[in-house]
């Protein structure tokens, strides 16, 4: 099988396919990979951090990678959701779910290191990096793909995992609906003056949501979203000025933020492929759906997709059979729609300023905190359990 894109989705799928008994897999990545000497630096495995749900951690454990991952990850014991200058806080706690942790936060480069080390360790996975496809051609039993070094590969299943602007998806004739939110996410690692105690803070501000995710040591990963002009302003401010603003916005019981690492920004463009399967080809990860990072669900949703896809095609005689691929797409539809809509509407809902909305929102947060059953349903869905 041939996977185009060696980012989070592509690397994870290669491992899952092998776990489910697939034959040889080729992974084509356009960026150079520095393994095995150092963590990779690619558009997927970059300066960001990713909140992995308990469900994703279970999948990594199944692949035998949980231990290596946890060496450089911080456990999430509590998720704390609040709205600036309003009452109403809800806390979701691991013990309420009977779990030792709700999830974990890992820096993307370490996640890449763990995934790609395992990819390189499997002799049945061939990595071609840096390499690009220059074209694909439909055959009676699959696809023929040409690489930029002139090599031709034949595959019974072509998997497009080459990100939101997937060239492979385009070549397959699949369009994508794109919505530019006009907002960007600013990310940076921050130092604290105390222990974060494994609390992930999600705070809804007037401009957009702010997340502080626990990292190993006294550090958190910041994901702060706002209108593009506002993010321009944040990017230009010096560290002390921005830290003062952040400390004013942070939840009162969170530790003080004392220092800031390098800042990066990401445009928030949501996209959704109009189809995810055609004969002998399937579209996954950001190439299939790109979400608002508000609740840290993009990769977790993808892992649930990939786990089912690998189960269904891993050991199959004819993995590119459209009936099989359509059954996979249908089975994943409801989860993708629910998580996609929730991550789209959550920031909108919290941005609305009308008093009635503000009151309802407040009630919603208070209700979630008072009724453990309601909160549990919410938490279990977000954790992918
Ligand atoms: C600010 C931010 C924070 C986030 N936080 C979280 C979080 O906490 N939890 C969570 O679950 N999700 C989170 N996400 C979402 C998560 O990052 C995505 O789900 C994930 O990156 C999807 O991975 P991917 O491999 O599909 O795509 P990408 O990460 O875009 O990777 C695509 C890969 O394909 C390669 N490529 C591109 N074109 C070609 C080509 N032509 N040939 C070969 N290779 C190619 C690229 O180099 C890259 O390596 C966040 C996203 C953002 C923007």
Please give the count of helices: 11
CATH topology of the domain at 2-46 and 109-178 and 269-348: FAD/NAD(P)-binding domain
Spatial extent as radius of gyration: 21 Å
* Total DSSP E strands: 21
The mean pLDDT is 89
Indicate the CATH class of the domain at 2-46 and 109-178 and 269-348: Alpha Beta
- Distance between the ends: 29 Å
Name the overall outline: globular
Largest sheet: 9 strands, mixed
Nutshell version of this structure?
This protein has helices spanning 8-19, 54-62, 66-70, 108-121, 167-171, 228-236, 239-249, 298-313, 322-351, 355-370, 372-382, and strands at residues 2-4, 25-28, 49-53, 73-76, 78-83, 89-93, 103-107, 125-128, 133-139, 142-147, 152-155, 158-160, 176-192, 199-204, 209-215, 219-227, 257-260, 264-273, 277-278, 281-283, 289-290. The chain has 385 residues and is an alpha+beta fold.
Write out key terms for the chains shown.
FAD/NAD(P)-binding domain, six-stranded mixed beta sheet, 385 residues, 30% strand, 11 helices, alpha+beta, binds flavin-adenine dinucleotide
What can you see in these coordinates?
The chain is of the alpha+beta class and 385 residues long. The protein has a domain of 195 residues: FAD/NAD(P)-binding domain (3-Layer(bba) Sandwich). The protein has eleven helices and 21 strands. It is globular. The structure holds flavin-adenine dinucleotide.
Describe the secondary structure blueprint for this structure:
Elements: E1 2-4, H1 8-19, E2 25-28, E3 49-53, H2 54-62, H3 66-70, E4 73-76, E5 78-83, E6 89-93, E7 103-107, H4 108-121, E8 125-128, E9 133-139, E10 142-147, E11 152-155, E12 158-160, H5 167-171, E13 176-192, E14 199-204, E15 209-215, E16 219-227, H6 228-236, H7 239-249, E17 257-260, E18 264-273, E19 277-278, E20 281-283, E21 289-290, H8 298-313, H9 322-351, H10 355-370, H11 372-382
Parallel strand pairs: 1-2, 1-12, 2-8, 5-14, 12-20
Antiparallel strand pairs: 3-7, 4-7, 5-6, 9-10, 10-11, 13-16, 13-17, 13-18, 14-15, 15-16, 18-21, 19-20
The structure holds flavin-adenine dinucleotide.
Family: Belongs to the UbiH/COQ6 family.
InterPro entries: FAD-bd, FAD/NAD-bd_sf, UbiH/COQ6, UbiH/COQ6_monooxygenase
Keywords: FAD, Flavoprotein, Monooxygenase, Oxidoreductase
